[in-house]
Amino acid sequence: MQTSFTRRQGAPNTMLIVDDDELNRDILSMIFEAEHAILQAENGQQGLDLLAEHEAEVCAILLDVMMPVMDGMAMLERLAERHVPERIPVFLITGESDSEVIKQAYDLGVMDVISKPITPPIVLRRVNSVMELFAARNHLADVVAEQTEELREQNQQLQNLNMGMIEALATATEFRSGESGEHVRRIHDITRLLLEQTPLREQFSKEEIRQIALAAILHDVGKISVPDAILNKPARLTPEEFATMQRHTVSGDEMLTQIPQLKGLPFYDYARLIARHHHERWDGKGYPDGLAGDDIPIYAQIVGVADVYDALVSQRVYKPPFEHLDAVDMIVNGRCGAFNPVLMEYFRDIAPAIRDLYARGAHTHTQTQTR
């Protein structure tokens, strides 16, 4: 079953295919030519030359590794120097199996590595999925840029529009992996409960609590950068795959910095720190920075607890849902990692309210894993 890419009017619509094998170029061209214009290059230098001439038209770059004159990694380094992967999704489509090369490619900004031989339905689905996410992100930035001044004068309209756009961005990854978007709404609600119904409310104003709960929606936005094969894998991840999955925390932080229109909004700093640190743990054994104790922002700790709870009580491809009391016991007794002992007391106190929240319809079983 083919997956089509919905392009906004006026958006770039040209695929740049860079591969020294004419047959591979032709196969990739046939996959995408019904929806896109095609540019072909035989090596990295030709690819850079074509991109310099047509960058405003290019919506994706499909790149081989082993090529004469300039190979794919050399071209990718040049692209990274110009921050091109931040604007145009780059895909490595290669027979290269060296894990160090693949790691370097991800570090340089490649969105996905697709192995040869080329399987058209897989290539089409994975490329179109990422392109949709890029388009959603760019559309979000455009809309915010166009309406910022007006929305500053109309505060309620700003709040409503921001909520809708943030949910759209936050759930892009969930739609990509088959989820409904309810996960991020539940994280919002649990975060708000922990801040409003425990002594933590003494540390924050009502408006700060509202903004922190709003920021919690974006906790996993960095998973946009995680390849489908890892995001949807039903089995245990390999160490290399888990390292890529862990990268979503840093990617989320970096992605939010790349939407300048968000920087003036009150939830922005909370969102960045939550995206980066919600997998840190009290004993310093979390990621990405190994923060410990009170060095972890309290609101990131709260979202981390909410995220683990929701993962436990939800259906995953690798496990059935746990019952509410079992999930609470697992978290409080350290079976899911080390959490702030005081926060665990608060969590246990409001556990009945969280159960009631799910009973009222907040809980819908999801089909993919949350790591």
Q: Can you characterise this structure?
A:
The protein is an alpha/beta fold. Helices cover 54% and strands 7% of the residues. The longest helix is centred in the middle third of the chain and has 34 residues, at 120-153. The two termini are 28 Å apart.
**Largest sheet properties:** 5 strands, parallel
Beta percentage is: 5-15%
Instruction: Characterize the overall form.
Output: elongated
Structural class: alpha/beta
Q: pLDDT below 50 for ≥5 consecutive residues: which ranges?
A: 1-5, 362-371
Q: Helical region count?
A: 15
Oligomer: single chain
The Rg value, from CA coordinates, equals: 22 Å
N-to-C series of helices and strands = EHEHEHEHEHHHHHHHHHHH
* Spatial strand sequence of the major β-sheet: 2-1-3-4-5
Question: Could you outline the blueprint of secondary structure elements for this entry?
Answer:
Layout: E1 14-18, H1 22-32, E2 37-41, H2 44-54, E3 58-63, H3 72-81, E4 90-94, H4 99-107, E5 112-115, H5 120-153, H6 155-170, H7 172-176, H8 182-196, H9 206-216, H10 228-231, H11 239-257, H12 268-277, H13 298-313, H14 324-332, H15 341-362
Parallel strand pairs: 1-2, 1-3, 3-4, 4-5
Helix pairs in contact: 1-5, 2-3, 5-6, 8-9, 8-13, 8-15, 9-12, 11-12, 12-13, 13-14, 14-15
